[in-house]
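Could you help me review a protein record that somebody else here produced? This is what I was given.
***
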Amino acid sequence: MNKIFIHNPFFRLISGIVVGVMVYLLILLVNNNLSNLETIFNNQELYVSILLSYLCFELMRWLISLLTRSKKPQNQPSPIVQTVIVVVLSMIAIGSAISAYYTFVVGFSIGQQELNLFLTIYGFVSVLYNVLYYSQYYLQRENKERIEQETKLREKMDADFFSFRNDINPDLLYESLENLILTIHNDTNLAEEQIDYLAGVYRYTLVNRHKELVTFQEEFSSARNLVALLNCKIEGGVKLKEVEGAVSDGYLIPGSLLVTIDSIVRNTLISKKHPLTLSLYVEDDYLVLQHQLNDKLIAHQDSMNSFKRLQRSYSFFSDKIFVQVKAGNQNYIKFPIVNVPSLTEEAI
């Protein structure tokens, strides 16, 4: 509330002088001809007008602060009630002050017509003061609500982003360990390969969990480890083709391909006769992952949630959206390639 203009020291200092001069000139305009301004101008009356303006403004500012001291809007008076209270009390103070000035300084009582003129002018000034206050008050409140909404949205996106980066995919870990237990009794060499693939995937996840972006080459290398690890369980049912086209100076969010491939595998029917072929290529600043649709009857919810968090996370780094398009029997997942020319790998 202290950011509202009526509490600004500069406004409080200047407003009394400006309004006081304008009120004095307006009174002269009503009572006299401004062409005789040089002969009728009175410094003392001008100073009194300025002091009355300071008195009016400071009193209204104090009353507004008093009436709005509660932070809960429901405990504050309505704008109309507050305006009436502030204007009436300020008019009583102005009337008392000008009457006292004429009685004790000038030496006679102020006439009713002159008093009404003062009250009318300062009443209009008081109403205008309150209108300006509420115009900024509601504008500030609307901006605050919008900022709070943006903050909440940003916090949610932050939570999704960090949740995605720190997701270690426990399902993949447990399934790989279970498959490793079965393999180690039959083929120790194959078991060692599985351990290497599993270590490569999770080493990559742990090393890059605090990074915001990684190069495509790093991500693709880890994706090949993941595909090799998955093929140990589904017996070569997943094929990952080399990327078509160069991704120069392109960055991805760590785990982009890992999460996407894992989600695709968990939600696709795969067999030796119907393998899953994943193709990667570059198109219009997008890295496109394409595969044939063969969805399972029941979706794996955890993998789908991770995939959705990945979609939202890309809004941090690119104006282009993360897109998934299903056309015919083909599924196209498009990753925005983040281009950061001045960014080095160490800075990431």
Observations:
- Residues 343-348 have pLDDT under 50 and may be disordered.
